[in-house]
Design goal:
By secondary structure, the chain is of the alpha/beta class. It is about 35% helix and about 25% strand. It binds 6-O-phosphono-alpha-D-glucopyranose. 6-O-phosphono-alpha-D-glucopyranose binds next to helix 9.
Amino acid sequence: MCGIVGYIGHREATPIILAGLKRLEYRGYDSAGIALIERHHTNGNHVPSTNSATLSIRKCKGKVNQLEDLIRNMPKTSMLGIGHTRWATHGAPSDINSHPHTDQTGRIAIIHNGIIENYSAIKETLVERGHHFESETDTEVLAHLIGEFYGDGRNLTEAVRLALNEVIGAYGVAVVSKDSPDEIVCARKGSPIVIGVGDNENFIASDAAAIVSYTRNVIYLSDNEIATITRDSVKTRTIGDVEVTKDVEAITIKLEEIEKGGYEHFMLKEIHEQPSTVRDAMRGRVIEEEGSIVLGGLRNHLPRLRNAKRILITACGTSYHAALIGKYMLEQLAQIPVDVEYASEFRYRNPVVTEGDVMFVISQSGETADTLAAMREAKRKGALALGIVNVVGSTIARESDGGVYIHAGPEIGVASTKAFTSQVTVFALLSIMLGRMKSLSVVDGKELIRALLALPGQINQILESSEPVIQEIVKEFKDADHFLYLGRGYNYPVALEGALKLKEISYIHAEGYPAAEMKHGPIALIDNDMPVVVIAPHDDVYEKVLSNIQEVRARGGRLIIIASDSDKRIEKLAEKVIRIPETISMLLPILSVIPLQLLSYYMARERGANVDQPRNLAKSVTVE
Ligand code: G6P
């Protein structure tokens, strides 16, 4: 999704903005741009003459490197600027549609994340008033609207505030003007803005990763807030014009966490981090000797959770697959009915939510627009909303009534890997906790915890042992057009996740299916060329899955099977076998997904795809 970076201070703005934009590349984008305000100096002694400044804009379709080429010969004396990476919504990726956009007079430049829903109505009115638009974007309309309010005694902040009062939709915006060359105005509604507070310099970004190398002190803007930022001050008020005092908070992410650390891609690094991220998800939460779990962020909600008539879980993408596993776990151990729904479906169908319901909202980023909207809808209808979120301080984390951080650290690869295993781990913790509050015995609780604590070592074992066979599979199947993934029970959502991973980064069409449902359709696809990945470790449904494997074999399908280390029967059924250690059924997804992540990674790499920034995808989808 789109990214925003801004700088005002005593240093050259361009390198800081470009470095910030590069940090945001992982979010997915198709064009980039920058606006710089340059003060005119008199007598060469760097004494600014009041209100004399120029605004320069460069922007292009393509990557930040292309923008860098474009601005190579520009004078690098600006100490104020804003930069943007755009992920197209209104108007195709093109130089003209790229941000920044300017107002009618060319004094103001704006960058914008989000969507202005009523932009065409505003545009019509402005056109009637003689405005001329160059791009097809909603953002240019907002720039012109701000321009309409600017002047006649109204400063830039006031102009932005009044314009935002007219718009319907979502925005994170940053605005500069050559007539106000000592400030950046930014505002947020539904799309994150973080202000980095420095020493005689300040930063803005849509994601703290862009500014973490410059400052660790930040202010998170809340929805409907606007900030006026100079090099030594940050003033915040609401869009309704009420002054607000914001706390300065410390960023928790470390610089090394957002660097590749010797790996070729972030995705590979993140796959290999899973022994420690799964351990971190459990850290301080497990009471081994009592067979129980403590989740501090849910402490105040335990009575309501225990008495919940129903649990709803909502999420998108990979987080949705983790939610499906969570359903199985919660129903098994806590015996509470659980409904899982895509957030994008939940929010638009007037779902039945009662006050006894508890909603878990699953999101790596904590910013996915549909997930956030589903949470707000459930809260409005009286449900208790609890987040299972990775990014600390994200909107879902802040707006939920409580929750559990998964503590996976920054996930940069667009294809989610470590967040998934940590989300599933947290669901296991939650299910044990609720189970123990109901009928799960101490002995059973202890057994589950023992199995949980063994997972990091077992993941390590898979990472160390599975690569050779995965490389063979990649060589053999790299030209396949389709893949089928099958699993049952706890491993059905893993089949969905394996297929999603392959689609996302290697662009091979893949479908995940419950193994037994294959008979009702996908079996028609199976021929001598069809690779079929079956997740068939020793679990409660192992024998049933063996029958499904036979059905594939009988039709000539090429079987790649994820099997338990000790399985002696599988070798003669499969073309390729990937081994994983044994664990209890409920925890198998945390192991069985690892080879599927590696398979999609190496497949994409072999096919020359851009692993960390797959085409058309965004890390965090902040538009509907
Ligand atoms: C995007 C990402 C996926 C992610 C999904 C949900 O589609 O590319 O990797 O699973 O959003 O994101 P969230 O941050 O809410 O978990």
